[in-house]
């Protein structure tokens, strides 16, 4: 049995049946086996490809079987998904190898009937691919785009309604492209130019970000992050360019008291600390202690000492720090619809119903946290989604409830590419080429 395909099936099973994150499960699987570089690349392709395409693969498989894929035994489903992915998307892999190896893996997890079933489905798929041609024509546009772009139909339907067909298609394309690596220079230790020249010396294909003064983007090859001495010694933090906008909009000053209400894993908290030159006090809250550990680890690596972490609910922050804070960041839990490219499994784990529940929570967090601000204090609300209900609508409702706050021209606080006319800033992947992100800056005036 081919150990690479077998391990890929295990990871795919773990993602869909146990809710594992694809990247975490894959890293663990790669660590636990001794694989050549070619094997590692193949396994990565199999896992990310199958996970991203899962809904489309289920539709393809369904064209060859009479019962729904959701009713199959989980391991048989995972074997068929990984097999169908190879047959449909990996031209260089011979069909016979896919079928034979899948059958061998099925012998480990299934009875004789199930082994036969896997064999029959995959051989039919290989023999008659035309049976699973995506529907086209009148009334089929949404389904066609969803299947061809490997997105759930409900997401595609929403995006077509919100942006039109062409933009929805570009959004889907963005999600399927490999995520560009971007890093934030630790300006407490070096300058961006200093870090950039070190990275270039180490063979990184890196350049300065147009969006963030401390940002560096790497569109091509780069060394392994696991092995990077510069990362281990705290010269940089991995962070997307749109996420790097938020701390600049908050504009923290050395010596101030800043609260980061939803802070883990601390990408923005540590950026705030840099902008404060590590002077002052940052109270970083999150519901989960395990996640807060990550902030402490990052802070230690980056040489930051002004962050204190607190396990707690952001909805109670107002009571704990009434009128004390100079600035408050609410980087709220959200649907993450602007960052689907970063997590292969995310598009299948979200639901329309789950997303609809988020604005109420986001407002509760804002309502519960803002009494912590001083008069004159600054509130920044941000999310990594492109859903108006979680963004502009939440801010509008918040301002209705709180006449002590006024909205400022958020776009004029962006560090490099200013948008002086924009009260609230929404970055869109298909327009801006970076993660989808929303930022609104408000001031407490009384
Ligand atoms: C968007 S993430 C924050 C990302 C973080 N600001 C960064 O830049 O690395 C939202 C965080 O809010 C936390 N969270 C969810 N509900 C919360 C609540 N009621 N109080 C505090 N934190 C909460 C989640 O655990 C999650 O870590």
From TrEMBL:
- An MF annotation (GO) of this entry: rRNA methyltransferase activity
- Which keywords are on file for this protein? Cytoplasm, Methyltransferase, RNA-binding, rRNA processing, S-adenosyl-L-methionine, Transferase
Q: Which Pfam families does UniProt cross-reference here?
A: Methyltr_RsmB-F (PF01189), NusB (PF01029), RsmF-B_ferredox (PF22458)
Tell me, in one coarse class, where this protein mainly resides: cytoplasm
| Any one GO BP annotation for this protein | regulation of DNA-templated transcription
Please name the PROSITE patterns in this protein's record: SAM_MT_RSMB_NOP
Which GO terms of the cellular component aspect does the record hold? cytoplasm
Q: Where would I find the SAM-dependent MTase RsmB/NOP-type domain in this sequence?
A: 171-445
| Binding residue positions for S-adenosyl-L-methionine | 262-268, 286, 313, 331
Active site: residue positions? 384 (nucleophile)
- What is the catalytic activity of this protein? cytidine(967) in 16S rRNA + S-adenosyl-L-methionine = 5-methylcytidine(967) in 16S rRNA + S-adenosyl-L-homocysteine + H(+)
Can you say where in the cell this protein is located?
Cytoplasm
Enzyme's top EC category: transferase
E.C. no: 2.1.1.176
InterPro entries hit by this protein: MeTrfase_RsmB-F_NOP2_cat, MeTrfase_RsmB-F_NOP2_dom, NusB-like_sf, NusB_RsmB_TIM44, RCMT, rRNA_ssu_MeTfrase_B, RsmB-like_ferredoxin, SAM-dependent_MTases_sf
Q: Which PANTHER family match?
A: NOP2 YEAST -RELATED NOL1/NOP2/FMU SUN DOMAIN-CONTAINING (PTHR22807), RIBOSOMAL RNA SMALL SUBUNIT METHYLTRANSFERASE B-RELATED (PTHR22807:SF53)
User: What is the similarity comment for this entry?
Assistant: Belongs to the class I-like SAM-binding methyltransferase superfamily. RsmB/NOP family.
Record's function text: Specifically methylates the cytosine at position 967 (m5C967) of 16S rRNA.
* Protein name (Swiss-Prot/TrEMBL): 16S rRNA (cytosine(967)-C(5))-methyltransferase
Its ancestry begins with: Bacteria, Bacillati, Bacillota, Negativicutes, Selenomonadales
